Amino acid sequence: MLVEKKVMEIPAFQTVSGSRLTGVRIGYEVYGRLNAAGDNAILIPRSYSSTSHVAGKYSTTDAAPGIFDSVIGPGKTLDTDRYFIVSTDNLINVAAKDPTVTTVGPSSTNPATGKPYGMRFPIIQIRDLVNADKAILDALGVKKLHAVVGWSMGSMQAFEWSVAYPDFVSRVGALLPIAQMDGYTVAQLDNWGSAITLDPKWNNGDYYEGPAPTDGLTRTLNTLHITQRSYGWGTNLAATPSKPDRSPASSWDAGFAAVANMQAASAARTKVFDANAILYGNRAMQLFSVGGVATLEEGFRPAKAKFLIVPARSDVLFFPAYGQRAVEALRKNGRDVTYLEIDGTGGHFDGVFEIKQATSALRTLLQ
Amino acid sequence: MLVEKKVMEIPAFQTVSGSRLTGVRIGYEVYGRLNAAGDNAILIPRSYSSTSHVAGKYSTTDAAPGIFDSVIGPGKTLDTDRYFIVSTDNLINVAAKDPTVTTVGPSSTNPATGKPYGMRFPIIQIRDLVNADKAILDALGVKKLHAVVGWSMGSMQAFEWSVAYPDFVSRVGALLPIAQMDGYTVAQLDNWGSAITLDPKWNNGDYYEGPAPTDGLTRTLNTLHITQRSYGWGTNLAATPSKPDRSPASSWDAGFAAVANMQAASAARTKVFDANAILYGNRAMQLFSVGGVATLEEGFRPAKAKFLIVPARSDVLFFPAYGQRAVEALRKNGRDVTYLEIDGTGGHFDGVFEIKQATSALRTLLQ
């Protein structure tokens, strides 16, 4: 499936925190066709480190298709012959330097100064991401979402959709789900970002005219990488040195293959990730509690949709317990909820690489 | 129970990596009395961030007793009326700046230069910790260990004891166990230390004559703190701001109570922890595979002891799967192994705070 990146401009956007942004340009992709009633749309809110490119290739020579291509396309679980699939780059996308991404965030030019915002960009919340996608869906003519299906940070948006626009959302698929932050995750997210702010090149976020805090960003991405994995990773990699002729038992100038693999993956991502955007993404997640209230039960009260909740059993980022908390709160509100755990030892990544375990449940949700 | 810190000097010590250390002074504590046969001793190898102070108080005015006081003492699970309990500060103790700790490591003076070793101190392995404790036990007249009972990094030593000195060790209690590194844990440990090496004050480990890399060390200890917890932490702390009059939704100058709590705990520990010693402790763990060979089954072949393996169910540092791998390898070698999981949502910390769940099994092991 060949797909095309498009850009939508939202003329004026008011953030939850009270800031006003103008001329907000956001990249998006659509697959399939919107029906006349405007009610066959499925939104895939972006996850933390993904973009609107969730399916297909831009060109036949692309190395890999969009991240959820295995479930999106003609005849697939999210069938583009039946549904109008929409995904957007949204605000504060961490891949701000990716040439295929159009987003607004700390690296954007502040029209008031003509310079990048840096950490003066307004703090963005999950509800803001929902509202930005709502503006795009409205402009595309979508009258009702057949479903919103989100992974990880996308699950937060999916949950928030169900209570922000309860009459607009018929079904919610929340994979690798979390509906409310706890202290553990708040601290975990602080920890991700802390290597960035420790790097002297970060310079309180004003690094756009000099060298980027690449060392700190690399370490942040290492943390992200580990937290997305689990005990199934690298049982054969432990004692393998990164340099075959040097032993990490005798020299600090030698390390381990597992670390080198991780660092290479992170270094590649530093080319497209903006360090400040990581901090904004973390803060958005840290602030999240569905509906913006203290308890999950109260937060889910406005919801009218049908729900599918799918954590991964070995996930140590968004633990299955988080999905179970959402199930409990939804059931107390009388909602129809299906719960399924993806089995495996791959951690958070199982939500992507083992998604085939959830396709049958996703099909049932969409019926 | 009032206890006393003592110091043993090992005149000459050869490391596994081939370095020779002289005049190695190591702090230790003993509780109970060694019997005439010298065979009623129980060794408690230190864990990563603990010291030889595992029970009792130095003075009646101490705020808290040693870390495993709940199970060590007269009539307790590790009964000091019957057993001679030994614990040591060992080499490369991370709490090198704690005045009650005596250890040798990167902050020690290199006799060849009269200056601190820094990162020129030899790389230490788990087997070295075992050998140092063996020298101390020999000097104390211990002929045989009734048991070695270790938590976390202490479990590595307990396992290594069973194959390094199989005729010396009758029973092994391994709590929060890991017998062989995998890529996940190797990368995780790299991640702990990476904030230290990112701090410009670290200066390649030569900071002893200037300011210590306290910012980096604090962040490292934050990572340690999170990794030792799990999804049971802070369900009520998420949205709580660190400053009651500022909202983290509107200002970067405001954060979350969970982060502030963690940072305060870490900041306190920076007063006694040496940053380089963290790197040495991490490397020792990263290099670990029981018996120094590639497979667990081969590694455990020399073992003769009886084993008790006790992971904590929600531990995301040393997952229950790691304990299960050890059980499988031991059983393939025909060893008598009891396996018990500590139930809870507190993560690695459950191995300390929920140890009462394992006391009955520990008593059975010691019979």
From TrEMBL, chains A, B:
Compartments in which it is found: Cytoplasm
Active site: S152, D315, H348
Enzyme class: transferase
Gene Ontology biological process terms from the UniProt entry: homoserine metabolic process; methionine biosynthetic process
Transferase keyword on record: yes
Keywords: Acyltransferase, Amino-acid biosynthesis, Cytoplasm, Transferase
A GO molecular-function descriptor: homoserine O-acetyltransferase activity
A GO CC annotation given for this chain: cytoplasm
Enzyme Commission no: 2.3.1.-
One Pfam entry name: Abhydrolase_1
InterPro entries registered for this protein in UniProt: AB_hydrolase_1, AB_hydrolase_fold, HAT_MetX-like
Domain AB hydrolase-1 residues, every copy: 111-349
Source species, domain of life: Bacteria
Family note: Belongs to the AB hydrolase superfamily. MetX family.
Family matches, as HAMAP family: MetX_acyltransf
Binding partners and assembly: Homodimer.
Protein name per its UniProtKB record: Probable acyltransferase
Origin species: Bradyrhizobium sediminis
